[in-house]
């Protein structure tokens, strides 16, 4: 099959890797939530061979993720599993770490709340939780381009939009996560690094 492709993934994979390499120094397992095209899983698992990488997404996206996985052929990259964050029936097993890129502004805020409600069951104590994407701070966008992106998202679906860092932090606190670092990334994005206490 023709593999799905995201230019944004291609652009941000190396900056994301540089942050993950600072924290994922020991062997362990990682659950990627919302693997999308599968490009991040294919690239990052190859660069972090000591991490057992588990991609996940809604069922429709699994064939594309699997195409990237097959071509990458990394022994530490597992077959993708179905995980819809709005469902509570069948959660993935807990992993040492969780990574999710460009998901919080796509799903509804209710889904974001549900997702964070699952996090205590998804990550082991002491594990890191990484969220990559754009955020607002004190209600303000970090750039005019992010303000335009937010308008574009809302035109696609009223439930979408760039999230307020402060609101996300409340959910993280409730999930037992402590903020370790907020890393400014290219193209007006951030990586929020949390650790499960």
Overview of the molecule:
With 197 residues, the protein is of the alpha/beta class. The chain has a single domain, classed as Vaccinia Virus protein VP39 (Rossmann fold), CATH 3.40.50.150. It has six helices and nine strands; from the N terminus they run H-E-H-E-H-E-E-H-E-E-H-E-H-E-E. Helix 1 (7-23) packs parallel to helix 2 and helix 2 packs parallel to helix 3. It is globular and about 45 Å long. The mean pLDDT is 97.
Sum this structure up briefly:
This protein has 197 residues and is an alpha/beta fold. Helix content is 38%, strand content 24%.
Task: Show the helix and strand layout.
Elements: H1 7-23, E1 28-33, H2 39-47, E2 51-57, H3 62-72, E3 81-82, E4 97-101, H4 109-122, E5 128-133, E6 135-136, H5 144-156, E7 163-164, H6 165-174, E8 177-185, E9 189-196
Parallel strand pairs: 1-2, 1-4, 2-3, 4-5, 6-7
Antiparallel strand pairs: 5-9, 8-9
Helix pairs in contact: 1-2, 2-3, 4-6
